[in-house]
Amino acid sequence: EVQLVESGGGLVQPGGSLRLSCAASGFTFSSYWMSWVRQAPGKGLEWVANLKQDGSEKYYVDSVKGRFTISRDNAKNSLYLQMNSLRAEDTAVYYCARDSRSSSPHRKIDSWGQGTLVTVSS
Amino acid sequence: QTVVTQEPSLTVSPGGTVTLTCASSTGAVTSGYYPNWFQQKPGQAPRALIYSTSNKHSWTPARFSGSLLGGKAALTLSGVQPEDEAEYYCLLYYGGAQSWVFGGGTKLTVL
User: Fold this and answer.
1) Hey, is B110 helix, strand or coil?
2) Can you give the pLDDT at residue A60?
């Protein structure tokens, strides 16, 4: 069974930093792209970033470019999101999600963690 | 800025059929956008339903189906059940930017 467990959320002041982690199990982590998706309170889903299996390619939504960094440690089956220069509008539940396999003709996001809440407020 | 548009809300009767759509500001949605669909209930993480336009996950109920319809991606629910009341999101892949974009979501009410 695929399991994704996020951690690291909390309350941070505007301009501060936070590092989110996602522990993956139940599948071959190193075979998949991985994504972060967020959801502001009462709002819709927003894709934030994704990262190729070997870490060689990473992509971000424009609103976080230059502030957030996605990374992974395949030896630890873990995904990370380093968030700097946080703003009030970054307040959201952040979900770790399994993205596609490069070897597959399909592109899909098929498994989600339960999310971790990040609150940016003074 | 790319915008993906869904109906904000729809209402369907139990046992009925309803179609949700997903449009792209860049033009017609094709299979190359690999449309994905998700269901989210209050307080829960999203659950994947459909990928690559019409492919179901092993856990997707048979009453859910995906297609392309009139330049949009579509999710059809046939024989709607009360437990299908939820928010539904589409997700499109933009290969040029190597990025995903979610639609704004459709709140489906079963009444």
Assistant:
1) strand
2) 97
